Amino acid sequence: MEPESRYYYSQRLKMHYVVWGDEAKPPLILVHGTRDHARSWDRTAQALADRYCVYAPDLRGHGDSAWAQGGNYSIIDYALDIHALGEEIGRGPYTIIGHSLGGGVTLQYAGAFPEQISRLITIEGLGGLGWTRERRPAHVRMRSWVESMKGLEGRRLHIYASIDEATQRMREANRHLTPELARHLTEQGVRKVEDGYTWKFDNYTHAGSPYEFNMEDARDLWNQIRCPLLVIWGKESWGNRSGVVDLSAFHDVRSVEVANAGHWVHHDQFEVFMGHVNGFLNG
Question: Where in the sequence is the domain holding 106, given as residue range(s)?
Fold first, then answer.
């Protein structure tokens, strides 16, 4: 089973997404994380396509979507892209599953347009965002951001001599991956260049922002969300904030930890992950 590729536009950027299943079925959107791509959801999409029509976008600067002019990537731009995708599909309200950055983006979208979301799952989408850090002065943040952007101007994506070499790097980044899954993620996540292969994401997606998103704003957005929310953490993940992030701003939320899983819970413990997803969606 292979998905259908489609395109839409957001802020004049040509954006790519794939579609799995029958569009007569309820719509479900899968939003990937930083430097990932739409096809990283293939197993999840195939498992859900019997009940939903599944839409998986490549965020700007990722996969087969356009790179942002000037190289500026922020969570609000990504959220705007998801809103544009929702308007393109035109079948809201949507069930959405977001991983990492994709989870944070989805919460922004859901907080601004709560009527467009019927159920929401975020995988490690509340951690690693710096909300618990002491805020730095604006002039320090601005200088740091300018210096990081200048540094990225001369940075080039690493070139791998073969798919095997790139797959090895994929496995080094996540020890839980099976050889077969690592190979699939790599094949879908690289593009051919003259000397070998590079990852599809734009190097500027490494850049941060001088404008910190504070917890006061986060809680205001979270408080607008009225749909049921499931938060999934990997017990072995660097991004696990279970018991640390205050979830009291949400109205209908449950949180679970998955053992023997790192940041990519949907890769590391797929059957357990789908058990939680199915239980939540059927509940």
Answer: 4-128+136-141+205-282
Q: Which domain CATH number covers 275? A: 3.40.50.1820
**pLDDT, tens digit (0-9, with 9 covering 90-100), for 23-64:** 999 999 999 999 999 999 999 999 999 999 999 999 999 999
The whole-model pTM stands at 0.95
Separation of CA 79 from chain center: 11
Burial per residue of 171-207, b for 16 or more beta-carbon CB atoms within 10 angstroms, e otherwise: beeeebbeeebbbbbbebbbeeeeeebbbbbbbbbbb
228 within a domain of the structure (yes/no): yes
Residue 151 falls within a domain, yes or no? no
Could you tell me if residue 275 is inside a domain? Answer: yes
Residue 131 has pLDDT above 60, yes or no: no
C-beta separation of 98 from 119 below 8 A: no
CB 141 within 8 A of CB 210: yes
Statement: residue 95 has pLDDT above 70 = yes
